[in-house]
Design brief:
Shape of chain A: elongated
Protein name (chains A, B): TetR/AcrR family transcriptional regulator
Radius of gyration of chain A: 21 Å
Organism (chains A, B): Stagnimonas aquatica
GO molecular function, one term (chains A, B): DNA-binding transcription factor activity
InterPro entries (chains A, B): Homeodomain-like_sf, HTH-type_TetR-like_transc_reg, HTH_TetR, Tet_transcr_reg_TetR-rel_C_sf
Number of domains of chain A: 2
Number of helices of chain A: 9
Order of helices and strands of chain A: HHHHHHHHH
Distance between the termini of chain A: 68 Å
Structural class of chain A: mainly alpha
CATH topology of the largest domain in chain A: Tetracycline Repressor, domain 2
Oligomer: homodimer
Largest sheet of chain A: none
Largest interface: A-B, 46 and 46 residues
Keywords (chains A, B): DNA-binding
Amino acid sequence: MPTSPEPIEPGRTYGGETATDRLARQRRQFLDAGLTLFGSIGYRATTVRLLCKQAGLIDRYFYKNFSDTEELLAAIYTESMDQIQAEVMAALAAALPSGDTEQIVTAGLDTFFKAFENARVARVCWLEVLGVSPRIDALYTRRIEQFTELLISVAQRLLPRWPASSDEAHYIAMALIGGVTQSAAHWLLSGYRAPRKVLVTANALLLRSTMGALG
Amino acid sequence: MPTSPEPIEPGRTYGGETATDRLARQRRQFLDAGLTLFGSIGYRATTVRLLCKQAGLIDRYFYKNFSDTEELLAAIYTESMDQIQAEVMAALAAALPSGDTEQIVTAGLDTFFKAFENARVARVCWLEVLGVSPRIDALYTRRIEQFTELLISVAQRLLPRWPASSDEAHYIAMALIGGVTQSAAHWLLSGYRAPRKVLVTANALLLRSTMGALG
DNA sequence: GCTATTTGACGACAAGCGTCATCAGAAATA
DNA sequence: TATTTCTGATGACGCTTGTCGTCAAATAGC
């Protein structure tokens, strides 16, 4: 009994690419173009026409992949932050067995700030996402919450006496994350004057002393 | 010998107001309208037409007072921050004679967060100013620097062994300010869920433990 | 090789923007 | 009272934006 050998794919191959491959490639081109433009001239100055010119595509394919420049911004932010968060978590996991608090904290912070040495990524993730819309604001807020939870989980591992579910401890962790993120934002805005090492050690002292006071 | 009795004022009185009075009143009306609109629908969604409607004036008087909506934003930001900074400095000065570190820090933080319980002010000062233009970015950066210097000056008073002009101490202070500002921003974005007291005590612990580790 | 699909280039359209000009009426000056 | 200045309302302009339609060339499937 004959069956359709391939899962139904809308459209046909063109230029050696299947329809879904083409869509994915176009999406990637727009993601790259968006990071370039949002991170240089800014989100509000970026138009669909500019995005298409930068991506080397035409507007039809933009609207096939995104409904809106806001949706593109959300996709870029989520992708960038997902990758950075994964890198930080990997660095933490690698340093955790040592048991050395200083080493663990430094490893996480160094990975974090290293990622934001890319000025375009930094600008999009700390400047351009703010104040765009309630939806983007929610994305940003949730991400800060994720980093806060990450910090709390590390603190609970390192410090047995860390308060388990205190409301205040949560806000302290969030303020610590705020210190780190604001450092990154200010690092960008000041043109990366200070070397990364200074940022890392300053924030490491902040984390260490506060966690010591609580743990 | 006859002299002109009044300093030359361009224009004449109208509606019981002198020309400069009228200009000042219009400027204030636009500042208020801008705070209302920038703080609710956002800076990029605010147009000159909307500003005029909100202010109850016509565009001619907008252009007499401001060249641009960006200039209005800068004026609103500067005015708001000037007032808040003055309030914080007054609270610090009032608490300084006590010599009680905890009390001084708490007084400053409480005044700070109290100011940003106004959601419109908070939104303009922490969300809307970011990523608008290099000029506005510079305004924001300088303001953060001012608060950082304020923190350092207080720390030097309270802690005799605080490192005088260490580059790292400067970045630590800035990270602390970042923690405070990010707390304020997140407070707004989370809909002011937590009471102010929690924000104050959490940030007070942050400041106290870190300054203790350095002083 | 024929036909249907996909592509890129180009133009058009309505809507919204900042900005300016006009014009009748209100208010102050002479 | 007559003249000048100021005010508010309205409309128009040039420009840019998002969005869609058209059309010839390129490519795939039969």
